[in-house]
Structure formats: C-alpha cells, structure tokens
UniProtKB/TrEMBL annotation:
It comes from Calonectris borealis. It comes from the Eukaryota. Pfam families: MAM. Residues 9-138 form the MAM domain. SMART domains: MAM. InterPro entries: ConA-like_dom_sf, MAM_dom, MAM_domain-containing. This is MALR1 protein. GO terms for cellular component: membrane.
Length: 138
C-alpha cells in the first residue's frame, strides 16, 4: 500500500507486472509464475492459492543477482507517507534479498532493508516506510 491517503495500490501479478514496477523491464532472471508451474516450491502464494501468480528467480540465476525497479515515486511528507508491504520466500539455496532507495539527485542506490536466510520454505512479510524529500525509485 503506497501513501496514507486513498492512493493505496495493491500489486498481485495476476494479470501482469504491477503498475509500480517498470512494465517490460523484467530483468533477466525474473519470471512471473504460479505454484502450478511445475518449477518447484513455492507451490502457492502467501494465501495458499496455487493458481495465484508471483515473481520468482529462475534456477539459472542461483549464483548471481537480479534487480526489480519501481517507477518514480513522488517526494514524501507528513501527509504522503510511503509504506511498502511485500511477501517474500527464500528457498532452495540461501540468498540475500535487498531493498534499495535511489534518490534522483544520487547515482548510488542506498540499501534500506535486507534479509539473508538459509532455506526457510515459508512466506514471510515485511513493511518498509520510506522518507524522501525528492523523487525516488525503489
């Protein structure tokens, strides 16, 4: 859900990529699939729905990294808080999932959240609150 006002946006990958993510900018390694795809766990989304879609890293990407980038978000203030809640699954091999913030005046991406876990084989959730006085991408 983005924004404390009425502009909350839900993103479930059922029909395509989310509006928040760059359309057609799915980097190599990311695939949109469901639990029925025959590609191994997870076999359902976080609600236990095996026909629901989610994004997954393909098995060829096990030794490298892949990035997802959002569209540009407007600056935050007291009225417009940006809060992003997401579900994640780390399985098969250990890995690190990171969320970075890139402000428009900066070339570098600042790491604002990360998790490194061994095989968990369960969905977990996290909520990140972002403050930025300028336009940014996540």
């Amino acid at each position: 859900c983005f924004d404390s006002g009425s502009s909350c946006e839900k993103c479930d990958f059922e029909t395509d990529l989310c509006k928040a993510l760059h359309e057609l900018n799915l980097q190599p390694g990311w695939i949109r699939r469901s639990g029925r795809s025959g590609m191994g766990p997870p076999y359902s989304d976080h609600n236990g729905n095996n026909s629901a879609y989610f994004l997954s890293l393909s098995s060829e990407m096990r030794s490298s990294s892949a990035t997802l980038r959002t569209n540009v978000f407007l600056p935050t203030d007291e009225e417009h808080v940006c809060q992003i809640t997401f579900y994640y699954w780390i399985g098969q091999m250990s890995g690190t999932l990171m969320v970075g913030l890139q402000k428009h005046s900066e070339d570098t991406v600042t790491n604002i959240w990360q998790v490194s876990e061994e095989l968990q084989n369960q969905w977990k959730t996290s909520t990140i609150t972002i403050n930025s006085t300028e336009k940014y991408e996540v």
